[in-house]
Amino acid sequence: MPDTPDPAQVHPSTRPELTNVTFLSTVVRSPLIEIGEYTYYDDPDGAAEFQSRNVLYNYGPAKLRIGRFCALATGTRFIMPAGDHPMIGCATYPFTIFGGDWTQATRDIATGLPSKSDTVVGNDVWFGRDTTIMPGVHIGDGAIIATGAVVTGDIPAYGIAGGNPARVIHRRFYDADVELLQRIAWWNWPIQAITDHVRTIMAGHPKELAALARREGLLDA
């Protein structure tokens, strides 16, 4: 077996200064949150509390889905659709949540409001410190979300987004290489294959990684 981090271990790093790094799949229990193996959150003040502190308004049908091998810096937050207020009339005040006559008079309005879909994050996505992801956003594989960004719309695979509202400010690779990387999908390889080729995954060109994957039978010709 390879000498690699155990995805079932809460604090996977052997470096004592990195006890603030937590594999999220080991601590998240909500059925509304799905997180892939090796995705971590780095927070010196309670990374294990990500579910309650960083996924806000987490009730209702919409889910948060995060892929494998993502890196979330301190303060990364996801706003879920239940936090939305009505915007169909004169007021945005959520009268329905307070009970009594207000609820009776507005329940059908509240339950009939359109709702955003799941918030979906791909694989190998890096979130900088204090990023905020708004409801229903889709972020593609390999994207980078810059520090302090507020993501209000979809971010394509391997895009670098920053600002408020966030916009794509750079693409990490040309479209053909992005398509190739998504076909390679190294994050779905067996852990032994990832370990054997981690240097190329980390520092190689997409075409170099593709050639390697073909030799290993990990990518169709």
In sequence order, what are the helices and strands, one letter per element?
EEEHEEEEHEEEEEEEEHHHH
Total individual domains: 2
* Alpha plus pi helix count: 6
* CATH secondary-structure class of the largest domain: Mainly Beta
Give, in spatial order, the strands making up the sheet with the most strands: 1-3-6-9-12-14-15
Terminal CA distance: 28 Å
Tell me the strand percentage band: 15-25%
CATH T-level fold name of the largest domain: UDP N-Acetylglucosamine Acyltransferase, domain 1
Which characteristics define this entry?
single chain; 221 residues; alpha/beta; UDP N-Acetylglucosamine Acyltransferase, domain 1; 2 domains; seven-stranded mixed beta sheet; four-stranded parallel beta sheet; 15 strands; 22% helix; 19% strand; globular
What is the secondary structure topology, with strand pairs?
Elements: E1 21-23, E2 33-35, E3 40-42, H1 50-53, E4 55-56, E5 64-66, E6 71-72, E7 77-79, H2 100-111, E8 119-121, E9 126-127, E10 132-133, E11 138-139, E12 144-145, E13 150-151, E14 159-163, E15 166-171, H3 175-184, H4 191-196, H5 198-203, H6 206-215
Parallel strand pairs: 2-5, 3-6, 4-7, 5-8, 6-9, 7-10, 8-11, 9-12, 10-13, 12-14
Antiparallel strand pairs: 1-3, 14-15
Protein name: Virginiamycin A acetyltransferase
InterPro entries: Hexapep, Trans_hexapeptide_repeat, Trimer_LpxA-like_sf
Organism: Saccharopolyspora phatthalungensis
